Write the structure tokens for this entry.
Amino acid sequence: MSYDLIIKGGTVVTTGSVGLADVAILNGKIAAIGKDLQSAVQTIDATGKIVVPGGIETHCHIEQESATGAMTSDDYFTGSRSAAFGGNTMFVPFAAQHRGQKIPDVLATYDARAQKSVIDYSYHLIISDPTEEALKTDLPAAFARGVTSFKVFMTYDKLMISDDQFLDVLAMARDNGGLVMVHAENHAMIKSATARLLAAGQTQPKCHAESHPPEAEVEAVQRAIALARSANAPLFFVHISTEGGAQAVAGARMAGAKIYGETCPQYLFLTAMDLDRTDGAKFICSPPLRDTATQDALWRHLTAGTLQLYSSDHAPYRHDATGKLAAGPNPPFHKTANGLPGIELRLPLLFSEGVAKGRITLQDFVALSAGNAARMFGMDHRKGAIAPGYDADIAIWDPDATRTVSADALHDNMDYSPFEGWQITGWPETVINRGQIVIEQGTLKGAPGDGTFIPRRPFEPTGL
Ligand code: URP
Ligand code: ZN
Ligand code: ZN
């Protein structure tokens, strides 16, 4: 018998071990892991390289209209291409329901957009209009087709839902085996701080951080935990950016609640000082960048397991009139599109700052880049691990490769990177999705349409 592909002699990181091995692939699946595997149509020499599951990016905004009408600069082709160059073989962007829109229409829109994806994909639905029809009919139908997670907002005028509605969504998800994700910031605190700053003529980008104080996140996280516990529903916090928010998650977990969370590269590697640059608009995201003490706290919570996921929150708006500067060359902070790009650098930054600097192990890297996301979002029957029978989704990393980040060398549709000039050690050089080579030695081999929709299973929180 001949395999389709053998990856020979790399350091393979599986769920339970790290060691030198060959990985054989047949018909898009991992067929064997062992020593001296023989006979394949194609062989990749991975000597000196690290062989890990392809990354799974579960927080990114791709070809998505914001509530104010701005379109992200990446579509499903450029977004998936950039993700693949960053070592990912699957992503789960949002399919955003804006008020008045019907869920089946939203899913049909994103199904059409996603046809261009180079890598596998699913969606989380954003629910801004939880009507009776949505809760009783449309969301259960979305479950049935394998869309099993939903994001809601506690802030943003055009997206936020009330606590009443939040409880309804939690109950619906609980009854159907779904997972609710929440953007937790207290809307009133943001509104009042914004009004105070504007009344004082303070409109610079740095005011964005002041207008979204840490207390706004902490209060909303605490309230959302209370709502989830009263509904006996699991809840996942996206983009935790404060020590207080992480502590609230840790406390709820210690009390046995099914509460989960993520943080993002920008909260580990950047600070609000970046907002005080002439091009500070590039660094406006919500929740905002914080400080170095918060970075340390978030690293601790990430390594201690309070936060199970590390996601990019790639929300790409160019630094021009199509994006950040839509309201003019010096837009006031509250009229600047929120979001940072980072889908391609998520994993290189984690490898470089985490593995290469000794903060995390290779197995932590695999858990944070793919394994935990697969478990959290119902894909761990086929994705997130190198194991026989799993999809052959693999990234081969050169742990010694060094790069200086330059927006020009990235593969998204952006005109800047918030990490410009960063020195990175460790880079994915070959990326394989269901046995097909997507990136080979830094060259795109995959094509639009190679990715496929992956139906996800109900939420099953084993071990997270
Ligand atoms: O600023 C951000 N994060 N924009 C994207 C939307 C969101 O809240 O995740
Ligand atoms: Zn958010
Ligand atoms: Zn986001």
User: Anything to note?
Assistant: The CA atoms of residues 70 and 322 lie 8 Å apart. DSSP finds twelve helices and 18 strands in the chain. The mean pLDDT is 97.
